[in-house]
């Protein structure tokens, strides 16, 4: 009996020993955020299912009314059938998530927020926030009223090179005063890269997507520029759109060039479904130097004292950037971190993005510069 007592006593001590062991510090697991998905007809949903495990996240439900899509995701990612719901309200009431990620058409983002906000459920949508300024302002009103976080996800927010460029420009003053920023975003086109038929159907719809390449890729530059300018309001927008592939994309533009004017700087956004390859890069020029991001990790810099220019490869360990947007969302929901003012995910930034895109559409349609003073402002936001 005595050895048995010692054995039980040893088992009681094991947790204390593991906590105090200098080589095995106790890991306190993050509180799980109950997360659900609204819609699967946006191919970026694959980003969520591409990883088997995400710390701090528990997937509790998926809303998708299309049985073909449901079956495709069940098979591809070996998901149980009881995870799926064909009615959004029913799913929200049944599984009671804390947070919802929307993978649906851009014009459906508002309906997701309308369903989630009164229930106190935080929401993250794919870029851009909405197709119209009125939709964006209604989403803000709901987010403020029900005190939820409303984030917009951009791939460039995950890039170590983006974060390093921001730190060089905003913290170190490497380029001096920003004078011109150029963004190149896009790919060969959704048909050429073989997106799913469900994604293509709304991506090329002028109402559901709000436009073509202008909306799909013009949003990246507007989003990054708003953070670089720290919320400074642009004066006006001039844009030109083209149909280089009218038979492929008969209802929406496939090429857009957007010039956004600020009091002390210019922003040129080149959004295209006609690039020979996919690209998301930017060039930031100031009165003392420049910084260029070439892709997600590579960066090129040069100031007045640098001969020649310097190439850098940036890793996530060198900068403070979370490369998983869903983990970022969960940490915001748990209030473990606060989004920076005008940050890429933030609501105030993304309302400004929609204002710029709306002005760009009107400029392209009329052939005139559109003053931003004629577009409703978002006002102050707590997000």
CATH level 1 class label of the largest domain: Alpha Beta
Cα-based radius of gyration, to the nearest Å = 23 Å
Helical content class: 25-40%
Structural class by helix and strand composition: alpha/beta
Q: How many separate helices?
A: 11
Overall, the morphology is: globular
Query: How many β-strand stretches?
Result: 15
- Which architecture name of the largest domain does CATH use? 2-Layer Sandwich
Assign the CATH topology of the largest domain: Dihydrodipicolinate Reductase, domain 2
Low-confidence stretches: 1-26
What's the CATH H-level superfamily name of the largest domain?
Answer: Dihydrodipicolinate Reductase, domain 2
Architecture blueprint of SSEs:
Elements: H1 2-20, E1 33-38, H2 45-49, E2 57-63, H3 67-77, E3 84-85, H4 88-95, E4 99-102, H5 109-116, E5 122-126, H6 133-146, E6 150-153, H7 160-171, E7 178-186, H8 197-203, H9 213-228, E8 236-242, E9 255-261, E10 266-272, E11 279-286, E12 289-293, E13 298-303, E14 310-313, H10 325-333, H11 347-366, E15 370-371
Parallel strand pairs: 1-2, 1-4, 2-3, 4-5, 5-6, 7-10
Antiparallel strand pairs: 7-11, 8-9, 8-15, 9-10, 11-12, 12-13, 13-14
Helix pairs in contact: 6-11, 9-11
């Amino acid at each position: 009996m005595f050895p048995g007592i010692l054995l039980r006593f040893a088992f009681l001590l094991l947790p204390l020993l593991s906590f105090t062991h200098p080589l095995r510090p106790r890991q306190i697991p993050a509180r799980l955020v109950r997360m659900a998905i609204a819609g699967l007809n946006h191919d970026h949903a694959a980003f969520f299912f591409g990883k088997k495990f995400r710390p701090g996240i528990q997937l509790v439900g998926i809303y998708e009314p299309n049985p073909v899509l449901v079956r495709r995701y069940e098979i591809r990612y070996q998901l149980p059938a009881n995870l799926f719901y064909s009615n959004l309200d029913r799913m929200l009431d049944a599984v009671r998530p804390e947070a919802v990620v929307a993978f649906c058409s851009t014009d459906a983002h508002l309906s997701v927020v309308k369903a989630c906000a009164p229930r106190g459920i935080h929401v993250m949508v794919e870029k851009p926030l909405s197709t119209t300024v009125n939709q964006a302002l209604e989403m803000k009103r709901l987010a403020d009223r029900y005190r939820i976080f409303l984030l917009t996800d951009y791939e460039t927010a995950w890039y170590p090179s983006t974060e390093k460029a921001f730190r060089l420009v905003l913290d170190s003053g490497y380029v001096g005063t920003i004078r011109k920023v150029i963004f190149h975003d896009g790919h060969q086109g959704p048909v050429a890269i073989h997106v799913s038929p469900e994604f293509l159907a709304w991506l090329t719809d002028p109402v559901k997507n709000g436009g073509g390449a202008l909306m799909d890729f013009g949003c990246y530059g507007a989003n990054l520029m708003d953070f670089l300018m720290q919320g400074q309001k642009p004066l006006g927008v001039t844009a030109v759109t083209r149909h280089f592939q009218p038979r492929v994309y008969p209802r929406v533009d496939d090429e857009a060039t957007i010039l956004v004017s600020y009091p002390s700087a210019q922003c040129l956004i080149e959004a295209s479904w006609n690039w020979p390859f996919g690209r998301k890069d930017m060039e930031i020029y100031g009165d003392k130097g420049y910084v260029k991001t070439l892709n997600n990790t590579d960066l090129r810099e040069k100031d007045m004292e640098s001969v020649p220019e310097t190439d850098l490869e940036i890793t996530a360990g060198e900068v403070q950037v979370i490369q998983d947007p869903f983990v970022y969302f969960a940490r915001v929901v748990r209030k473990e971190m606060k989004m920076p003012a005008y940050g890429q995910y933030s609501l105030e930034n993304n309302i400004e993005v929609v204002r710029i895109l709306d002005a760009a559409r009107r400029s392209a349609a009329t052939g005139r510069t559109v003053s931003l003073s004629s577009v409703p402002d978002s006002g102050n936001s707590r997000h």
